[in-house]
Structure formats: structure tokens, C-alpha cells
Design a protein that fits this description.
Elements: H1 2-15, H2 25-59, E1 65-72, E2 78-84, E3 87-93, E4 98-105, H3 118-140
Main location: membrane
Signal peptide: 1-16
InterPro entries: Flagellar_biosynth_FliO, FliO/MopB
Length: 141
């Protein structure tokens, strides 16, 4: 009896059905490519939706700060006037940092829709730079 059971166990793999062939390598490659394209399309679609809805909501928002005027004082340096809550901030802007130079109240006659004219500010800045140069020259003597 034990011999019959042993023979059946050895013969069981031979009696089993032949293994079914898996999908062809071409079919597997097509599935991988289709899946990759589906994921890339989802990424592009989500990015498009995010950009569309985030930019659309920003256009109607209230902006508390507004650049009134600016002038280049060097290759990478600017002096900018920013309006913030009825106050003007004069900022020195470089490629590495932003420094507050002066705060002043918003002029009464300034129209909110029109930027300030550059020549008076340029003249004020030139006078301030001349003063600084004169002080440096007096310190050297």
C-alpha cells in the first residue's frame, strides 16, 4: 500500500496538466508602456488643473503691496518704492537681499492707478548719493 502511494506521488507531476504559457513578452511590454503613459497623462492633467485653478483664484485677490516706482543703481542693485497700507517703503534690492532704507507716509496727491514719475525720485537719489560721497570724502581728510 505504501508503495502504491509512493508511486502515485512520483507520478502526480506527470499526470498534471501541462503548464499554461504566460502572456507573450510583447504583450507585457505593451502593458508597461500603456501604464507609463497613463501615469504621465495623469501628472500632466493634475498639473494643468492646479495651475488653472490656483492662478485663476489669484487674479481676483486683493494685493496689499504694490510697486510704485523703481530705479537701477547698479548692475544688480535697485531702489524700489513699495506702497503698503497707506505707507511707502523705500527698499534697496540686491541679488542677495532686500533692505528697508526709509518709510514715509503716502503722499496725498498721489493717484493709486498711476505710477510715480521717475525723474524726481532719481534726483532725490542722486542728491542722497552725493551727500554720502561728500561725507566719505570728509572722513578721509
Amino acid at each position: 500500500m505504501l508503495r502504491i502511494l509512493f508511486c502515485l506521488l512520483l507520478a502526480a507531476p506527470a499526470l498534471a496538466a501541462p503548464p499554461a504559457e504566460g502572456p507573450s513578452p510583447l504583450w507585457g511590454m505593451l502593458q508597461v508602456i500603456f501604464g507609463l503613459l497613463l501615469v504621465l497623462a495623469a501628472i500632466v492633467g493634475i498639473a494643468w488643473l492646479f495651475r488653472r485653478f490656483s492662478m485663476g483664484s489669484m487674479l481676483g485677490r486683493f494685493q496689499p503691496a504694490r510697486v510704485v516706482s523703481g530705479v537701477m543703481v547698479g548692475p544688480h542693485e535697485r531702489v524700489v518704492i513699495v506702497e503698503l497700507a497707506e505707507e511707502w517703503l523705500v527698499l534697496g534690492v540686491t541679488s542677495r537681499n532686500v533692505n528697508l532704507l526709509k518709510t514715509m507716509p503716502k503722499p496725498a496727491g498721489h493717484d493709486a492707478g498711476q505710477p510715480a514719475a521717475n525723474p524726481p525720485f532719481a534726483q532725490w537719489l542722486a542728491a542722497a548719493m552725493d551727500k554720502a560721497r561728500k561725507r566719505q570724502g570728509d572722513g578721509d581728510k
